């Protein structure tokens, strides 16, 4: 029997999802039949999401603020009537500089968004999923969570932390039939990658295209990945097709590692 990718009747919360990877994930889950609630710090993007996808609930939320995160989650779950799927997508690039000259505030904000928000939302979702008889959590990390990069210490540390958090949660929540997995995207085409390229070019006094070429050269396929690739992997993991998969890290990077 072919495993189903349908999410009909399921309820999903996706963080930082009014643009980029998160938005494509939210759209993909909705197309598969799920009812979806998202949040984002960008008010303009939230307004656009509401206009383009009125069936997807969109709320402004600063995921660096645990109280604001809890407020968003409570309202989202009330509208959905529960939760079956949580996608922890929040992440910022953070400062690109040597650790010795980095401001502590910049470090703290990066970890607050990239790691602590994942913990806060998972902690809130777990008891509700347990009451519902199970669920699925996917944390979006990065290939930066599997290696080190100079001048990217808070980003790499947070992405390593996302993996450790997910693996620990998988052990804790498995007996309650709650599956927890991680996706590690490589270079994802889009505005965020362009900002990182621009920052790297500025820091290294190089042309942007030269930096882009260096980035893409790490892939045996000579390319980055698309948000659609990450969304497709997410759909597989939260659907019945992935119902025996938990505690694993899935790398989607066009063979760049």
What's the arrangement of secondary structure elements?
Elements: E1 11-14, H1 20-31, E2 35-40, H2 43-52, E3 57-60, H3 66-80, E4 85-88, H4 104-132, E5 135-140, H5 153-173, E6 178-185, H6 191-204, H7 208-217, H8 227-238, E7 249-252
Parallel strand pairs: 1-2, 1-4, 2-3, 4-5, 5-6, 6-7
Strands of the largest sheet, in order across it? 3-2-1-4-5-6-7
Under the CATH scheme, which architecture would be assigned? 3-Layer(aba) Sandwich
Structural class: alpha/beta
Query: What's the CATH superfamily, by name?
Result: NAD(P)-binding Rossmann-like Domain
**Low-confidence sequence ranges:** none
The major sheet is characterized as: 7 strands, parallel
- Rg (C-alpha, Å): 18 Å
Helix content: 40-55%
What's the pLDDT, averaged over the residues?
93
- The oligomeric state of the chains shown is single chain
Return the string of H and E elements: EHEHEHEHEHEHHHE
Strand content: 5-15%
Q: In whole angstroms, how far apart are the ends?
A: 34 Å
Shape: globular
The tally of beta strands, per DSSP, is: 7
- Which fold name is given in CATH as the topology? Rossmann fold
Number of separate helices: 8
Give a written overview of the molecule.
With 257 residues, this protein is of the alpha/beta class. It has one domain (11-186, 225-251): 3-Layer(aba) Sandwich (Rossmann fold), CATH 3.40.50. It has helices at 20-31, 43-52, 66-80, 104-132, 153-173, 191-204, 208-217, 227-238, and strands spanning 11-14, 35-40, 57-60, 85-88, 135-140, 178-185, 249-252. Strand 1, helix 1 (20-31) and strand 2 form a beta-alpha-beta unit.
